[in-house]
Structure formats: C-alpha cells, structure tokens
C-alpha cells in the first residue's frame, strides 16, 4: 500500500486532456461509429473485480468507483487490445467520472447492466409482475442518468439470463416492458440514443425463440424491441472447432438477424490454461457476417477460475498464461476486415412480431404489460439524484501497480496511452510495457474448472475489497488536492 502511494505521487499530474471516443450506434445488424460509419466489433472482456459477490452498495465501492484500480486495469486492457468492457453491478449513487474518463482515454467503451442481484433490482423470473415496480424502475433510470453523459457508454443490458427452463411464460413480456421504459427514458433525457439489449443464457432449446421474440418489431410497442442481442456461450472449449462448438448452428439459427449480435460472455475454462482459439473464428468470416465480436469472461481471477489476471491483496497483478494467450490470438485478427462496413448488413429491418415465430413454450403472448403511472412520471420528470455531466481530465497515466508475467518477471514502462479524439483501442496498438528480465511466460499453472459463469462466493473477494477501501481513501485525498 505504501509503495502504491509513493508511485502515485511520483507519477501524478502528467496531465493530458482526454478526448472522447466517438459514440457507437446500432445500424441494421452492425454496430457502427456514429460519425465515420465504420463498423465496430467488440473486442471485450467482462470486468467485475471481487466477483458478483463483491458488489456491496453502501460500501462506496463498485467496479467504476476507484480511479487507481481503473487505471491499473485499463492499462492492462489497453495493451491487450481490448475496446469494450462489460460491468454487471453498479451503484448509481457513486461518482464514476474518473473511471469513465480513464477508460475513454484508453479508447475503451462500456456496456453496462442496469440490474443487480439485490432485491427489487432485477426482473424476478418466477414472478416478474412482482418485480416490475416503481422502486426497481427508479434504480434502472438512475443507472441511465449515471452513465448517459459519457460517449463511451456503448449500451445497456436491460436484463441478463432471466429466461431459462424455469422462467415463467410471462417473463419475455416483462423484459420487453422494461426495455421499452428504458428506451423511452433515454429518448426523453439523453442527448443521444444509447443502444439497449438483452444478454441471453445459452439455453439452446429456447434460444431462437428468445431471439425472435425480443428482436421482432411490435407495431403497438416498437420501443420494446432490442437494439442488440448478447449471448453468453461457453460452447468452445480448448482446441475445439467451428463445428464442435456449434458456431455453425448459431449462424444458421440467427442468420436472419436485423440487430447486432455478440457473445456477451465467452471463454470455456474446462481446458486450462485457455488458448482462446475461438478468437480466430469469432473475428473472421463467416462469423463476422452475423456476430459483432464478443466479451471474454472475465478480467480478474475469482473463485470460479475464469480470470485473465490475478489481483493480489496488495493490488499487484499477476498476468495468467490466459492473458498472454488471448493477446497472442488478438494479434492475429485482420483489423481492416473488422471495420469494413457492409451496406447489405446495415439495411436490414426487424420483421413484424408474429405468434408463428415462437415454436417452444417460451411464451404465447405479445401483450407487453402497460406502463405504471409512477414510471410514466419518472420518464416525464426524470429521477432524483446527482449525476456526472461528462468527462474529467485524466491526470495520471503511469502504472502504479507491480505487474508480473506468469514466469515471475516484472513488466516495466506500463502506461496509459491517451488516445486522440475519435480513436478507439485496437490490438497491436498502444502496447506499453516491456519485460524486465526473463522472456514471456512459459509456465502455465493449470487450475480446476468452474461450473458457473457468474456464481462466486465471497471468500476471496473480501481481501480485494479491503484493499480497495483503503485505496478509495487515498484516492479521495489525492483528487481533492487537484
Ligand atoms: C460526444 O460525441 C459527440 C458526437 O461525436 C460530440 O459532438 C461530443 O462533443 C462528444 N462529447 C464529448 C464530451 O466528447
Ligand atoms: C420492492 O418494491 C416494492 C414496491 O415498490 C415494495 O413494496 C417492496 O417492499 C420492495 N421490496 C424490497 C425487498 O425492498
Ligand atoms: C418448457 O419446455 C422446456 C423444455 O424445452 C421444459 O424444460 C420446461 O419445463 C417447459 N416449461 C413449462 C412452463 O412448461
Ligand atoms: C430466414 O428467413 C427466410 C426468409 O424469410 C426463411 O425462409 C428462413 O426460415 C429464416 N431462417 C430462420 C433460421 O429463421
Ligand atoms: C454483408 O453482410 C451480409 C449479412 O451479414 C453478408 O451475408 C455478406 O456476406 C456481407 N458482404 C460482404 C461483402 O462482406
Ligand atoms: C399489441 O399487439 C399484440 C400483438 O398483436 C397484442 O397481443 C396486444 O394485445 C396489443 N397490445 C395492446 C395494448 O393493444
Ligand atoms: C429518490 O426518491 C426516492 C423516492 O422518493 C427515495 O426513496 C430515494 O431515497 C431518493 N434518492 C435520492 C438519491 O435522493
Ligand atoms: C496509439 O496507436 C495508434 C496506432 O498505432 C497511434 O497512431 C497513436 O499515436 C498511439 N497513441 C499513443 C498515445 O501512443
């Protein structure tokens, strides 16, 4: 901790103004840069240091509240080539300005879940009508308020994995209702449209129907349709192939899409260390005809063993072999092909919703629940709270944590490269840091595989959180001097 603070003081005030990344919008089945029209594909990672159990509102900490932690991690994401980060659990009462500014400076977008695991903060899959209420929607709108003024907010997930074999048949209607309310709130209170979509569990018997239901155009409720569709899929394990992973089936099933689709989580960990050979498939044709990239689950090592890096209690970082393997795979992506916009793809329009689209027992109704009067009032008048108005200067760009390779060698010269306006991050560019002594890591340390993608326990997160609280105190003191 003391070392951390000293390094911070020494590298402070290498100030530079962060220019914004350009907003990304959905256009047909592509995401595109709102200004240049270039196609945008997600080269991303899920980010929840401390795991799902690390979210503790009232603690003053969430994954975007601590500037030192964000700087430490944004540097390692930037050098890897990441351009998008997904975050699950956020507290709208906290100020995320510094972290959003750091990610923006690094050329990294964020796709954010509006929900949390706490009561009244997500749709209840057993009884959704009990969860569609004013308290829940106020929280959701507060998240919109907390992030709408940052151009690197790429999108919001209105719901995550609510539909499965156990979900009530009315769940899809409520997902559309919440999506409608979010889109209407954004239309009333944001200076730009921010895409809103769903993140689906890979329940293959329900997948196509879920996709069709949520993406079709409902004439009497057009805003309840998704702007994009995320799929959490762990079907490519080890050195699998396009066919073994069932990517060919996914392409067939989703071939008619008129909205962007991406892997909102991927990265099976049954074979360790992970080699990420699916990257070559995800970022080339035919996958790129339909998919807009994906997000690797996940940045930090948690009890379920999906990490790219291990965060130690003293805030130092050990890169896992997985991180090096992912960087290696990213380095082989044909970047020019990724950004080529395609007018056939952008001209697609959603088909009209029809009962014939639904072949399973997913649901039998397109009757989207009526909006509650209290929710209409919030859409008309906004929600209470104090929210950021835009980016701040990024004043500190040097890595302040010790970062080691799997072989124990330390990385030197790590820094945040502040990108010029309208640039987003890409693999192979802005790769700071060189290895001090030994060569690249060669000693992978296999660990056992986990079973749940987001399930974690609090055992190892308490350590991280303690560190983060102390860091937050330092941060407050530091920023107050500026
Ligand atoms: C956000 O993007 C829009 C469109 O490119 C631009 O006009 C605006 O200045 C940007 N905002 C910031 C804070 O950079
Ligand atoms: C959830 O919200 C409802 C309605 O706003 C409220 O009556 C209920 O007490 C809340 N439940 C919890 C657990 O906070
Ligand atoms: C719907 O079908 C799935 C199998 O596809 C089954 O597991 C589930 O129990 C069924 N749900 C209802 C409510 O009947
Ligand atoms: C895609 O659309 C075509 C033309 O409407 C239709 O024949 C085909 O069945 C659709 N495919 C899927 C997987 O829905
Ligand atoms: C354009 O996109 C469509 C739909 O994804 C795809 O079928 C087609 O091959 C693409 N064309 C080119 C030239 O990439
Ligand atoms: C909207 O259209 C759907 C499908 O046609 C229908 O089931 C539903 O009752 C309509 N809702 C309203 C409020 O009219
Ligand atoms: C916003 O209003 C709600 C309901 O009136 C209240 O429970 C909540 O504490 C308020 N939040 C803030 C941040 O003022
Ligand atoms: C980041 O990489 C791009 C492309 O190589 C380069 O043009 C830009 O100058 C780099 N930015 C910094 C701050 O090094």
UniProtKB/TrEMBL annotation:
Splits internally a 1,3-beta-glucan molecule and transfers the newly generated reducing end (the donor) to the non-reducing end of another 1,3-beta-glucan molecule (the acceptor) forming a 1,3-beta linkage, resulting in the elongation of 1,3-beta-glucan chains in the cell wall. This is 1,3-beta-glucanosyltransferase. GO terms for biological process: fungal-type cell wall (1->3)-beta-D-glucan biosynthetic process; fungal-type cell wall organization. Its EC number is 2.4.1.-. One of its GO terms (molecular function) is 1,3-beta-glucanosyltransferase activity. The keyword DNA repair does not apply. Belongs to the glycosyl hydrolase 72 family. Its main location: membrane. It is a lipid-anchor; GPI-anchor. Pfam families: Glyco_hydro_72. Residues 1-20 form the signal peptide. Residues 430-462 have a biased composition (Low complexity). Keywords: Glycoprotein, GPI-anchor, Lipoprotein, Membrane, Signal, Transferase. It comes from Lithohypha guttulata. Residues 423-462 are annotated as: Disordered. GO terms for cellular component: plasma membrane; side of membrane.
């Amino acid at each position: 901790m003391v070392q951390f603070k000293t390094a911070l003081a020494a590298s402070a005030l290498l100030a530079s103004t962060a220019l914004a990344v350009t907003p990304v919008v959905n256009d047909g089945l592509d995401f595109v840069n709102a200004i240049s029209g270039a196609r945008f594909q997600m080269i991303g990672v899920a980010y929840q240091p401390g795991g799902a159990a690390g979210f503790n509102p009232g603690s003053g900490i969430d994954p975007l509240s601590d500037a030192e932690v964000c700087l430490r991690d944004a540097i390692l994401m930037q050098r890897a080539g990441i351009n998008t980060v997904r975050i699950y659990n956020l507290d709208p009462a906290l100020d995320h300005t510094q972290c959003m500014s750091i990610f923006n400076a690094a050329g990294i977008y964020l796709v954010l879940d509006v929900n949390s695991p706490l009561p009244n903060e997500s749709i209840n899959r057993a009884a959704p009508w009990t969860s569609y209420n004013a308290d829940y929607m106020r929280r959701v709108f507060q998240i919109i308020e907390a992030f709408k003024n940052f151009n690197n907010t790429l999108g919001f997930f209105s719901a995550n994995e609510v539909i499965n074999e156990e979900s009530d048949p009315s769940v899809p209607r409520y997902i559309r209702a919440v999506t409608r309310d979010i889109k209407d709130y954004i239309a009333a209170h944001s200076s730009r449209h921010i895409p809103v979509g769903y993140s689906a569990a890979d329940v293959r018997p329900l997948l196509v129907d879920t996709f069709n239901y949520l993406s079709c155009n409902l004439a009497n409720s057009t805003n309840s349709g998704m702007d994009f569709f995320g799929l959490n899929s762990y079907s490519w394990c080890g050195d699998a192939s396009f066919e073994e992973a069932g990517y060919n089936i996914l392409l067939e099933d989703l071939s008619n899409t008129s909205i962007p689709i991406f892997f909102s989580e991927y990265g099976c960990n049954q074979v360790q260390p992970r080699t990420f050979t699916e990257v070559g498939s995800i970022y080339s044709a035919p996958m790129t005809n339909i998919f807009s990239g994906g997000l690797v689950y996940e940045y930090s090592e948690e009890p379920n063993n999906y990490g790219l890096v291990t965060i130690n209690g003293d805030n130092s970082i050990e890169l896992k072999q997985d991180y090096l393997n992912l960087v290696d795979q990213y380095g082989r992506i044909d970047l020019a092909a990724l950004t080529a916009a395609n007018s056939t793809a952008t001209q697609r329009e959603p088909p009209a919703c029809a009962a014939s689209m639904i072949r399973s027992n997913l649901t039998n109704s397109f009757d989207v629940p009526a909006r509650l009067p209290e929710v209409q009032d919030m859409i008309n008048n906004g929600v209470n709270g104090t929210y950021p108005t835009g980016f701040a200067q990024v004043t500190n760009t040097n890595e302040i944590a010790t970062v080691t390779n799997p072989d124990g060698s330390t990385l030197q010269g790590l820094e945040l490269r502040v990108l010029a306006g309208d640039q987003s991050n890409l693999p192979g560019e802005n790769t700071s840091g060189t290895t001090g002594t030994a060569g690249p890591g060669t000693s992978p340390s296999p660990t056992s595989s986990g079973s749940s993608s987001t399930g974690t326990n609090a055992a190892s997160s308490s350590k991280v959180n303690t560190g983060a609280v102390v860091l937050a105190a330092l941060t407050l003191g530091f920023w107050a001097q500026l």
